[in-house]
Automatic annotation (TrEMBL):
Cited Pfam families: DegT_DnrJ_EryC1 (PF01041)
SUPFAM superfamilies: PLP-dependent transferases
Heme listed as a keyword: no
Molecular function GO labels: transaminase activity
Listed PANTHER family: DTDP-4-AMINO-4,6-DIDEOXYGALACTOSE TRANSAMINASE, TRANSAMINASE
Protein name, entry field: DegT/DnrJ/EryC1/StrS family aminotransferase
InterPro entries: DegT/StrS_aminotransferase (IPR000653), PyrdxlP-dep_Trfase (IPR015424), PyrdxlP-dep_Trfase_major (IPR015421), PyrdxlP-dep_Trfase_small (IPR015422)
The family this protein is said to belong to: Belongs to the DegT/DnrJ/EryC1 family.
Length: 398
């Protein structure tokens, strides 16, 4: 998945444009910048790639998720439904606003289970945050219907799924707002960076102002701009945007390589009857950034994961024991370790985490292994890797 694997001349040229002008900031300094507007150009490219009317670049994917929620008016005491399997950033982005993360089970897509979402709705629910994990997607039709019927926002975290589609729409462009990350290990990298994507003009305007101290960006004198509301600094720099601009132009090439590598490994593992694969909803097309498969039980998945590590099959994750991506090991969040006081309302709202049954999620994550699909492998390396993986799995299962 990582764009940093294929990195070179184009990235260097875009960064040098910025260094030559000396304007490292995305706003203002019109006279000095030699016509270079890398953040604006990247936003235009992303509008096209993501078939969305509006794109706001920001400083990270975590910022993007929090800004998306804030732009649609989610705040103190509101409940946001999110999956048990994601990245800690989902939880953090909700907490930053004083809102309450409500974790619910996933299904065989490795995304939000629609029935679990339905069951978690209360009068305080404002939004459903679907996370398109490991390059594929949740059951989007069912989730959209639930949101429509209950008047809830659908926020789509597509940080790991750029290049994937559902019914020909880019992942990240389906919800009311979509979020992307361009951190160092994502398919497209800026070093650090993120984006909020929407077709809603008001949400976009809010995101634009909120991510730059509430500046209204009217006219070209920053000192004279109005400040319609409170904002913070979640800006991206021109240097970061320049890297992303070179990378985004290569997205079709990256997806093609991922698909090729993915299919070689999948066809080899498909020969083993006990191995099954995550469900991709009908009409969905993965980004092929990961190959996610299931083994019969926790024991076999644990053994396969260990044997992969011992035999040099890197970049495969058994998330059951991972403390970044799955609720089971989020001790600091379950016990709400915070540097500063958290409101009583949020503390009370999170008490359910001590007792809620997530056995449905456990059942999938315990048996799942997800392998990163790298861009830099040669076809020969992928074939050898696929055979090695199949051999290890067969040995463990025999
Ligand atoms: C990477 C990631 C984020 C956060 O992005 P950063 O740019 O690292 O802040 C959020 N959600 C998911 C699913 C991610 O994989």
């Amino acid at each position: 998945m990582p764009g940093f694997e294929l990195f070179g001349e184009q990235e260097r040229k875009e960064v040098n444009d910025v260094l030559d002008s000396g304007v490292l900031m995305r706003y203002g300094f019109d006279g000095m910048r030699n016509g270079h507007w890398k953040a604006k150009e990247l936003e235009a490219e992303l509008q096209n790639t993501l078939q969305s009317n509006h794109v706001q670049l920001v400083s990270s994917g975590t910022a993007a998720v929090s800004i998306a929620l804030a732009s649609a008016g989610v705040g103190a005491g509101d409940e946001v439904i999110m999956p048990t399997f994601t990245f800690v950033a989902s939880f953090e982005a909700i907490m930053m606003l004083g809102a309450i993360p409500v974790l619910v089970d996933i299904d065989d897509t490795l995304g939000l289970a629609p029935e679990a979402v339905q069951a978690a709705i209360t009068p305080k629910t404002k939004a459903v945050m679907v996370v398109q994990m490991c390059g594929s997607m949740a059951k989007m039709d069912a989730l959209q219907n639930i949101c429509k019927a209950n008047n809830l926002l659908l926020i789509e975290d597509a940080c790991q799924a750029i290049g994937g589609t559902y019914k020909n729409k880019p992942l990240g462009s389906i919800g009311d707002l979509g979020c992307f990350s361009f951190d160092f290990v994502k398919t497209i990298t800026c070093g650090e960076g993120g984006a909020v994507v929407t077709n809603n003009k008001a949400y976009y305007t809010n995101a634009d102002h909120y991510s730059d101290h509430g500046h209204d960006h009217v006219g070209n004198d920053r000192g004279a701009e109005g400040h319609p509301f409170l904002g913070y600094n979640f800006r991206i720099s021109e240097l970061h945007a320049a890297v992303g601009l070179a990378q985004v132009k290569r997205l079709p090439e990256f997806i093609e390589i991922q698909m090729k590598h993915f299919n070689i490994i999948k066809s080899e593992l498909s020969k083993i009857p006990e191995v099954t694969f995550r469900t991709v909803p009908q009409g969905g097309e993965e980004s092929y950034g990961f190959l996610s498969f299931f083994l019969p039980d926790l024991e076999s998945a644990t053994k396969v994961s260990e044997a992969f590590k011992q035999n040099g099959v890197d970049a495969c994750f058994h998330y059951y024991n991972n403390n970044w991506h799955y609720i089971r090991k989020w001790e600091h969040l379950k016990n709400l370790k915070s540097l500063y006081p958290i409101s009583k309302e949020v503390k009370d709202g999170l008490k359910y985490l001590q007792t809620k049954d997530f056995s449905q999620s456990d059942n999938y994550i315990a048996r799942n292994i997800s392998c990163l699909i790298k861009l830099s492998w040669t076809e020969e390396e992928v074939k050898i890797r696929a055979q090695k993986m199949a051999k290890i799995i067969s040995e463990v299962l025999s």
